[in-house]
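Question:
Now give any protein.
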Amino acid sequence: MAKSASAHKVDRPFNATRRIYVLAFVGTGLFILLGARLADLQILRESYYDAVAQSQRERASELIPHRGIIYATEEGNVETSVLFPIATNQRGWIAYAVPRDISEPAQVAQELAPALLAFRQRQQDRVNETLVATGQEPREETDENVASDESDALEQLRDELATRLNKKRDPYEPLLRPYEILDDELRNFLAAANLPGIVVKEQEVRIYPEGSLAAHVLGFVGYEQTGKVGRYGIEGWHEQELAGDLGFLSSERDSIGAFIGVGDHTFEPATDGTDIVLTIDRIVQSFIEKELADGVTRYGAERGTIIVMEPKTGAIRGMATFPTFDPNYYYAINDPAVQLNPAISEIFEPGSILKPLIMASAIEEKIVKPDTTMVDNGPIRVAEYLIDTYDSQHHGLQTMTQILEKSNNIGMVWVGQQLGAETMYDYLRRFGLGEKTGIRLEGETRTVLTEPDDWDVTTVATTSFGQGIALTPLQALNAINVFANRGQLVSPQIISRTETADATTIFEPQVVRQAVSPATAEQISAMMVSVIENGVAQSARVPGYYLAGKTGTAQVPDERGRYSPDRKIIAFVGFGPVENPKFTILIKLDNPAGLSFASGTAAPMFRNLATKLLKYYQVAPSYEIGQQQPFRVTVPDDSGA
């Protein structure tokens, strides 16, 4: 025992020393690891943790600018125009769910479904009312998942909501489509119900207070993945200016979210969008939209377009297409093509409304005068084609004025043959054909005018009466406006001015070129007066005023490039009063029903519009009714050009 105890006492110091060494080794290792960790946190990853700390005490957000307002004017015969907002902003509310904050999704779905279903039905009713008012068919719900009766629809919506609200990790679940805004009924319900996890949030929404007024000029603000964006018309062309620039706010907050006054903050204010004042006159636009809707319906046309221009400045006072749409409900249409503006985006063969341009070219070249004669004894053959008058009537010896009065194709072929391809092409270019007008609207089409080297005798003949050549309605109007503006071609203007917080930009009238001399312009004007007073367009006449006009009826090419026997384009162009023109008008009807001609359709529409415009602009009569005298031309000196 003594020996054993002695051995045990010898081992104890050795074991104690070993433990000390082990503990020292472990401690040193831990110290090294701790130092390395501190170095990693404080040195190597300093910027990362600084950013984390900063994010915990800062709140950063984008500042949304107010979208620019678009105005129409109301001028009449006054010097100072009155502005009317036709695209503006107002407060709206959206609703969404935060499923992770909803403990009983089935119960919330049970309470929410009836109100949401009623909202959707109200929306559908409003959409259908709008479609009917804009000349479209009411939209039927085509979703295969929509139940056939109300009780099934309600049950289906409850199940759908219960599933969506049960996504426990989902921080956002929309209850409305991106373009929908809460109406008063649903907003009041949500405020009263105070359902857990259902959030109502205010936001700025784009509205169009006048509904469908000038819809094709305005376009609309729609939604893309990146957010709201202007589409078509002014909203599309001027998206960047109207949208403005985002601002930015970053500020330090404490643990409960209160602002730290001495903390760092960054503030970059938003720049609101540019306000745009259009040349569109609200009253004129209302006139043409009503007349167009009535005319399309009355004559059974597929579609129609009217444009009104101020002759001297090129300002567009009205531009309308029917059927149309309401930009407040831009998403609820049956045919996406309805949103396109055919006044600038679609081409057509103008038919006889091109004849004044060809006649003016011949007068300018001194090939003919208004009283120059030719003989029409019947149809004429050009290459393999037989060309006749529109009514197969022939009148023998005819002056150039009578050729326009009767819209005589045979007489116009004779004029075209005197001009030749090269000269005719040159003048058509002078009138702006084959180039864009440059109007500041999204979607203008550039037309192509075939080079004269590619013309043959048939091209010369058909072009002389407006077939085989295509242009947009705005180009046609702008070309005819040359005669109302002493021979000058002006650039069509749709914007009067733009306004920002810092500056106002005025858009001045732009003269493109002197297309023909003032003398030629006045002679053609007088000949077009005779078309209304004595020719095929007498239904366009307004007693007491001398108005200039020209009818046009053109065939429509089919998919094979052949003219369809069943389709036609009816058009009328005119201006007045001819002594001092206040307006130039184009009316176009696509494929009206029956054996329609412009003299019985578009011409009466012109008369109705001209009557309203003369009254609106308070234009004194040219003569006392019952004491009319023949309109005579006083040819100005060409040196005044």
Summary: The CA atoms of residues 127 and 332 lie 6 Å apart. The mean pLDDT is 87. DSSP finds 18 helices and 23 strands in the chain.
